Amino acid sequence: MNLKLSNLPGAFGDAETKPDMESGVSEIDANLLDEFAGHPYSVNDDEAMDDLVESIQRIGIATPLLVRPADGRYQIISGHRRAHAARIIGLDRVPAVVRDMDDDTAVITMVDSNKSRPNIPLSEQAKAMLMRHDAIMHQGSRSETGETSRQQLSRENEMGEKTVARLVQLGQLEERLMPHLDDGSLPARSGLQVVMTKPGTQRNVAGWLEGGGKRKLGEAQAKTIRSLDEQQAEELDPGTIAAACAVERKPKTKEYVRVPREWIPAGMDDDDAIEWIHRAINEYSK
């Protein structure tokens, strides 16, 4: 299962979309800017940031930030990287569109404004999807068109409903496990098992992964940990997790069949396509 989806159209994304300019642009004090609470996207001092700093030094901030007023200050909705670059340069004031919005609308706008970012880590995609999902749920389980939250997110991000559900689940992992999603030591399938365990168990899984060497939690090991966790009221201790991870995994023998992509209905991601193929084979075998 490949959940690294930032290469898909509409998947969570680096460049932020331009805010609606109808509300007008103000010059606001850069010292009054605060990050969005729980902002899922990283802001890194990397080559891309160097390029942004150079661009702002040369032509200024071309796209105003989008902010909302909050207790005499301003919370950034869109423009965290531009704000960081402005601080590096030492700008006193930055252009911004100031707009009042409730928490759910702010979350939805913040996530949607990042749809064009490339190469977003899986952990950030998951956390953003969870925030977007929860905001939609707060506004009502179904949209005006009758769609469920999962259907709406599936349509907006051009991915299968099952992929949406998996990202929402992965977004609920303990924070210490998130880097392991991104470096591959906690594959997505394993993460979907671990997220069903108690928070303390998840923290101890993180401790095992951080224990040195090139450790990787396989799906079979993760299923064992989940099963053991469900059998007791307390979290699994580090020793039990280490024992579960020490079980030798037997290689699986697989048979592969090539199916031309044009045979598969358009719009399906890999997981949905596999399920469709299985259903077709089962129908043919009847």
Automatic annotation (TrEMBL):
GO cellular component terms, semicolon-separated: chromosome
GO molecular function: DNA binding
SUPFAM superfamilies recorded: ParB/Sulfiredoxin
Pfam families: ParB_N
Top-rank taxon, per record: Bacteria
InterPro entries: Chromosome_partition/occlusion, ParB/RepB/Spo0J, ParB/Sulfiredoxin_sf, ParB_N
SMART domains, A to Z: ParB
Domain spans labelled ParB-like N-terminal: 26-115
Disordered: annotated segments: 1-21, 137-158
One of the protein's GO biological processes: chromosome segregation
Biased composition (Polar residues): 140-152
Record-stated family: Belongs to the ParB family.
Protein name stated in the entry: ParB-like N-terminal domain-containing protein
